Amino acid sequence: MRTVLILAFLLVSTPFFSQTEDEKQLKAIYDEALTNGKAYDWLNYLSNQIGGRLSGSVQAQQAVDYTKAQLDSLGLDKVWLQPVMVPKWVRGVPEFAYIENKPGLTTNVPICALGGSVATPSGGLKASVIEVKGIEDLEKLGRDKIAGKIVFYNRPMDPTMINTFSAYSGCVDQRYSGAAEAGKYGALGVIVRSMNLRLDDYPHTGSMGYGDTPVDKRIPAAAISTNGADLLSATIKLNPNAKFYFKQNCKQLEDVQSYNVIGEITGSEYPKEIMVVGGHLDSWDLGDGSHDDGAGCVQSMDVLRLLKETGYKPKRTLRVVLFMNEENGMRGGNKYAEVARNKGEDHIFALESDSGGFTPRGFSIDASEENLKQIQGWRDLFEPYLIHMFYEGGSGADIGPLKEEGMVLAGLRPDTQRYFDHHHAENDTFEHVNKRELELGAATMASLVYLIDKYGTVPVKKIKG
To answer: What Pfam families does the database record attribute to this sequence (predicted)?
Structure first.
């Protein structure tokens, strides 16, 4: 018995079992986030008091004013607005569509204009439909079969892909370039199956472009809900003479001025080394943009607050950036990188949250092999919080333009299985965000920022050109 007691004493008294400084700091961050987090309250206001924040809209400006005021209240060393010109596309009167089996026999289906699309003629557009599974089918069919019709892109997201962003990437080209390509074959318009793994009645918008297509040759493009897409596909198989009608009133206006919202804590030892954490403040207009990307913005804001509240004094300058116009132009991310380069700023690290406010799983990292291994070496610190993914991959659209040799970029990676249920749709709303999941994401981001700041990045020898 005495031997057992001695062994027990040695086990509890040995330094091996005491918490390290890093473990204590991470626990303090998570405890603060889960008991006093501000992200959920900030998101509540952005979503329910302001709503969808399409670039150039009144709501986008209200979001700029609100988030700047909140950052001002945190006692940061500096908060400012960075001007950026952004596109202003307006949806207009809600869209309307139906499938016509024969004159007078119609079935309404949910659609929404794709961001950047032109309007239909004032009376709407009605034509026969030709279904394709992707842009590559257009050349096979040829102009004779396409001209004068509506092209219906009906390639679904691949449900076998566990990484839902890979499934999205596999078919989003039909949304972005579908109209430009179909127009070359004389199509009158395009209807695109929504980027959604679920069968429902919510059409999902998103950006599209016409490339170098002359203005008078541009054709209207709309997304149809997944249920609507299945119905349209079944209908035209049974009745090839069926027609599709849709009407939309969207319009592209002149660019307007907006802002990136920026706040920072000046580094105590290496103030010229800058670390960025951020998300995009704009959103589509159908919902209130809670997951895309209100969640990423409020998490990023809370990163700086969490570090301040836990008493951590950063060695390097920590900067939160709420980027404007990620959804339909990338103007905010490009402007921030342009200004940073013109000023000769030294950015060593950037972290973006733009994958929804779901349970965090880890990070994808765009960095050298040495820096990737350094971050992977911290895996044990994150394990108690069920964070386990540290893999090489993309970071985020807005921080991508910052990339330079030797810099570390990272993206927060939550569980993505439900993300595309809401992405760019009317149901991207506050009630679909879980408070605890959102707070865990903020704490996970703050923890990585803390570790990078404390230990720095691994210097990479630059190759002389």
So the answer is: Peptidase_M28 (PF04389)
Pair of tokens at residue 20: 């390290």
Domains and CATH numbers, the chain: 21-89+254-455 (3.40.630.10), 94-249 (3.50.30.30)
| 324-341: average pLDDT | 98
158-166 average pLDDT score: 96
Output the six-digit token pair for 134.
Answer: 């992707």
**Phi, psi values for residue 37, rounded to 5°:** -60, 145
Q: 64 is written with which tokens?
A: 């700029």
- Rounded to the nearest 10°, the torsion over CA 368, 371, 373, 374 is 180
Residues counted in the chain:
465
Asked if residue 161 lies in contact with residue 171, where contact means CB atoms within 8 angstroms, the answer is: no
- Pair of tokens at residue 141: 């069919």
Instruction: Identify the bridge partners of residue 390 per DSSP, sorted by sequence position.
Output: 363
- CA distances to 174, 242, 247, 290 from 428, rounded to whole Å, are 22, 33, 24, 6
pLDDT in tens, 416-463: 999 999 999 999 999 999 999 999 999 999 999 999 999 999 986 654
For 384, which DSSP code? G
d(CA 438, CA 443): 9
| Contacts for 15 with CB less than 8 Å, ≥ 6 apart | none
Query: Which regions of 380-439 does DSSP assign to beta strands (E)?
Result: 389-392, 408-414
Quickly tell me which residue has 């998101």 as its tokens.
43
Distance CA 133, CA 154 (A): 5
Residue indicated by tokens 């994150």: 382
Ordered DSSP codes for 237-303: HH-TT-EEEEE---EEEEEEEEEEEEEEE--SSEEEEEEEEEEE----SSS--IIIIIHHHHHHHHH
Which residue bears the tokens 């991508």?
400
> So what's the pLDDT on residue 18?
59
Q: What is the pLDDT of residue 10?
A: 39
The token pair that represents 420 in the structure block: 């595309």
Question: CA neighbours within 13 Å on the CB side: how many for 54?
Answer: 22
SS3 label, residue 463: coil
Taking the C-alpha atoms of residue 52 and residue 265, their distance in angstroms, rounded to an integer, is 29
* Average pLDDT of the chain to the nearest whole number: 95
Which two structure tokens, joined as six digits, stand for 435?
């408070």
DSSP string, 128-148: EEEEESSTHHHHHH-HHHHTT
Separation CA 121–CA 46 (nearest Å): 35
> What strands lie across the sheet with 221-224, from one edge to the other?
105-108, 96-102, 243-247, 125-132, 150-153, 189-193, 221-224, 111-113
